[in-house]
Amino acid sequence: MAGNAGMMTGPGTNTYLLGETQVAVLDPGPDEARHLDAILESAGAPIRWVICTHTHRDHSPLAAQLARLTGATVIGLPPPADGRQDESFAPTHRPADGEVLDLGDIELTAIHTPGHASNCVCYLAARERLLITGDHVLEGVSPVILPPDGSMGEYLKSIDKLFAYDFQSIAPGHGDVMAQGKTVLEALRAHRLAREDKVLRNLAKLGAASLDALIPLVYDDVPVDRHQWAKLTLQAHLIKLSQEGRAVELNGNWRIQTA
Fold this sequence. Notes:
It contains 6 helices and 11 strands. The chain is of the alpha/beta class. The protein folds into 2 domains: 16-179, Metallo-beta-lactamase, Chain A, CATH 3.60.15; 194-256, Winged helix-like DNA-binding domain superfamily/Winged helix DNA-binding domain (Arc Repressor Mutant, subunit A, Orthogonal Bundle), CATH 1.10.10. Strand 10 and strand 11 form a beta hairpin. Helix 3 packs antiparallel against helix 4 (181-206). 39% of the residues are buried.
């Protein structure tokens, strides 16, 4: 775990080392010297692959230096141009959706799961029945959806997509490994839909409202110091509702779309 604990990173970014005779480093984390040393000391075998679930700056910046030091192949999707990404990330291999990566001691299936960011990829270790999710699924919290690159509609589709895979546990980008992975997904999906329903109920009550007016009502169960981040997810919910023809925005105010 990287030493970057904070409001949006929880206890810190998880880096997973996979394999015994050849090692894959998954989500190397921020460009932090102590974390780099910890990865190199813990590997116990040559590092052959560096894999990133996505390119937010708490997950991928160390990839470039690890690759320089070890000659490892860098695997992941390139950063979107939304100003929130690690622009140093330059993959030497871009995994296709459903591609099985042969990593010596272990095989990982790449599963494209856009939503939190457009380039999110989960990785399934099928033999171990373990799904590594980056920020797509977290322990104890739901991830922030970051429009315009992030999409609530795509996020929910990606959650549904994962139910088709056989896994028992989820290894998140932040927090502890979670057993009963499908139950975790069901709870996460239910939470997002319940928040969407809360958005619609408050729009119906107010008639028309700005993001600032909606935030304290829709997120009254979230500490105020997190509302700046919650506002992004609220916006993602509203964009989804707009795309579905259920809400409309005019001059910064949102209202329910009527026929």
